Amino acid sequence: MSALRRMRKSGRGSILLICSLLLGSAAIRVGSEAGKAVATENPLPVLNEASDNLPEAPQPDRDGLRHMLAAFQEREKRIERLEQEIDIRKKALEVADEQIAKRLLVLEQAEESLRSLLAIADTAAEEDLTTLTSVYENMKPQDAAALFEEMEPAFAAGFLGRMRPDAAAGIMAGLTPQTAYSISVILAGRNADAPKG
Q: How is residue 1 annotated by DSSP?
């Protein structure tokens, strides 16, 4: 029962609230409409009085506007010329980039070809040295010693360093003591600068 009473009381309060809002809305409308009616009652005298007090609007400077328009047009032309120059430079750079890329490719191919040739030359030179060393090793020691006696000591040391120890010893035994000493110094000193582990 008490819940029903509360609902009835709250219903009456809601109706009163809605009614007061409607009355307030009507009062606001009447007030705003009355303001419009008062404002539009005699507008001309107020406008005439206000316009008499206003300063005259300045006339536009036609020559100044023409100069300004001409300056804008000239600036627009300069910007268009600059854009065209930038486009031309951009195209020239693209062409240059393509040429550089082609030249780099040609250089890379030439470098690869040169590497191959150097590898072949190194292999051929190594094969030649190996063959010549083998020839000296298979010669009679006194015949080989006579040849080594005529060689520069550094050149002779290069071959003796590549030979089997027994063949090198036979050739060294056939050399004069001065030549044998010079070659021995070169052989002993050629790895002196190598790092020691």
A: -
